Amino acid sequence: MPSQPVNLPALIALLVSIATPTFMSTAQALGVPQTMVATQTMVASRPAAQPLIQAQAGGLDRLLKQGSDLLDDDKPDQALDIFKQVLSADANNVDALIGQGTAFYYLKQYEGAIAAYKRATAVDPRSIAGWVGLGNALDDTKQSEAALKAYDKALAIDTNDANVWYNRGVTLGRLQRYQEEVAAYDKAVRLRPTYGSAWYNRGIVLTKLERTAEALASYDQAVKLDPDRVNAWINRGNVQFDLKRYQDAVKSYDRAIALEPNSEDAWFNRGVTLANLKRYQDAIAAFNKTLKINPNNADARKNRDSLLKRVEQLNQEAS
Q1: Class of 162-226 per CATH?
Q2: How far apart are CA 44 and CA 50, in angstroms?
Q3: To which H or E segment does residue 13 belong?
């Protein structure tokens, strides 16, 4: 959000507006699945070789579980070796292909991830995990339109998957298709009312659309579901500030500061809000704290110095 001046008539010529906190990172927003979706691979019936096939399948299942466990333990390089072993025995094993794609994704080897997910969806076009993984990898390589098509393939299989609607919303946001982004998050939270990240992102896009009251309702849900999300408290305070609910905004920033005492944004925004409440000494203290955290924050220094002059002027007028 571009910085806009907050005018304080007869008090301060310029007080820099609240800073908008950083949005969720790509990795956080996409929510890459930690575990693979189990996909059954049918083996052609060949009675004479059945015992051997069953034994091999059992060994592959153990390897697949080992690979999945390694992904859960954040060891994608080791997981990749395991999935390669499975694929050397069964080149069309969808679970292994998805696991390979996910391991490549965690290693930020996106071309490898895209290739693996494409193979998985070619073998099993109804693999939701394959389409979602493909969408995630395409989105992270700035192929947003292609990512949307992948998510739409997943939704054609199961329209009630809240995660897919969420991921679709994130991608629509990158494309600045904000109305559609809101609709995607609406669908996600209808399917899963406890989806904290969807409520949080919904608040962000509604703020962009200047649907402030709705944004506040979203942040209310976000902090209710995840009281430790610092940026949700800061964003909630920002929206309350826009609604001129300054006392409430201070409380939101205080919650953020309780969670993260060195949050530059929270202290700075608190200072701006306190100045609007004419609590000048408290505002000066907030800007001093901001400068202690970041001595190079020019806006905090300007605001503090303006308030110091204003307080001195008021004291002279009172004497």
Answers
A1: mainly alpha
A2: 9
A3: strand 12-16
Cross-strand pairs, 16: 5
pLDDT value of position 47: 28
Closest CA to 209 of 177, 232, 241, 234: 177
Cβ contacts of 134 within 8 Å, gap of 6 or more: 101, 114, 117, 118, 121, 147, 150
**Topology agreement, domain 1-19+235-319 and domain 74-159:** yes
Eight-state DSSP code of residue 49: G
Domain ranges for the chain: 1-19+235-319, 74-159, 162-226
**Partners of 6 in the beta sheet?**
15
* 74-159 CATH: 1.25.40.10
pLDDT of residue 61: 86
Q: Supply the pLDDT for residue 14.
A: 33
Return the closest-CA partner of residue 249 out of 24, 10, 18: 18
pLDDT beneath 50, residues of the chain: 1-55
Residue 58: what pLDDT?
64
Q: In 3-state terms, what secondary structure has residue 225?
A: helix
Indicate the SS3 state at residue 291. helix
Res 43: pLDDT: 27
Residue 59: its pLDDT value, please? 80
Residue ranges in the chain assigned as alpha helix (H): 26-30, 50-72, 76-89, 94-106, 110-123, 128-140, 144-157, 162-174, 178-191, 196-208, 212-225, 230-242, 246-259, 264-276, 280-293, 298-318
Position 197: which residue type? S
pLDDT of the residue at 268: 95
What does the alpha-carbon distance between residue 119 and residue 40 come to, in Å, rounded to a whole number? 16
Model pLDDT, residue 22: 29
Residue 182: how many other CB atoms lie within 10 Å: 22
Q: Which CATH number fits domain 1-19+235-319: 1.10.220.10, 3.30.70.1130, 1.10.3470.10, 1.25.40.10?
A: 1.25.40.10
The pLDDT assigned to 55 comes to 38
